[in-house]
Amino acid sequence: MRKAIRKTSACTHRRAAVRAVALLLAAYVVPLGQAAAAAYPERPVTIVSAFPAGGIVDVIARRLAQHFSERFKQSFIVDNRSGAAGSIGYSAVARAAPDGYTLVVASGPTTMAPPGAAAPSWQPQTAFSAIGMIGTIPQAIIVSNGLPVRSLPDLVGYAKARPGHVNYGSAGAGTTPFFTMELLKSQQKIDLTHVPYRGQPEVMTDLVRGEIGVTAMTVPLVVQQVQSGKIKAIAVTSSTRVASLPDVPTVVEQGMPDLAISNWFALMGPARLPPEVVATLARALTEALAAPDVQASLKDLGLLIQAAPPAETQAFVQADLARWIAMSRTLGTDTPTLKETTK
Fold first, then answer.
1. How far apart are CA 76 and CA 306, in angstroms?
2. What is the pTM of this model?
């Protein structure tokens, strides 16, 4: 009997010891993700701007990088990887390790590879993790002073009388200005010749020189040139007029509501970012967008701040990509990179 008791007691102690070890291990294992998030970032983080320095995406990226650097006491560095309508920068992010150390300020349909390009090894609908929405900025349709038009109907009439004579510039096929102008061409049945550039600053330079006749560009990038009389703004692509260009009528006022297309901006990273890292960055982004100094600087850019959490941002991005994919097919600019994601 005593042997049985000793045996039972020994077994009980062993089981208790095993449970104790298991609980101890669990105490370390369960908070592992939390510990990783608490430690993040442990080294410098790169925020990719898929467009050249001086553009709106670059300015937003640098403002966020400054705030994040101060908040995390770690370096956040902006890396301009421009060209191919943004696909060079987006490709770099899509291929990066999903560890939170490579991010991108995404801008509307430029998360798609440009029409006419070879299909990349990634799909825009599935290649990125949304961290949060930043905001939106309407565009202005602007023309060179050498083009004798002062409204959208004027431009349509002038172009119809001179098929192929008017050139429009953009930062490449697949950008929001490209789709805006192509939609104008399609709906109004006019023939405009596309001239692609590396970035928006180059487009503006040639518009001022009169090398191209028309383009669409985010409002903040055109205000100074319009106010100085170097170019003319004939429309804003919003449903209401913008404060910085109060005398410029909207596309809705001019009978073309389908051209009410604004640029959206979101912070994103590669697909499969750890949820803890997404949550950490999402909180930091929300804090940044609520900070008075950040709000002031972004509003100075003409950006309407519209913060949104990761899941809501991801759903919005997916819906907008679907919209642009459908539009690219309608406009005949579809490519193998622009296809529906199958489940």
1. 23
2. 0.69
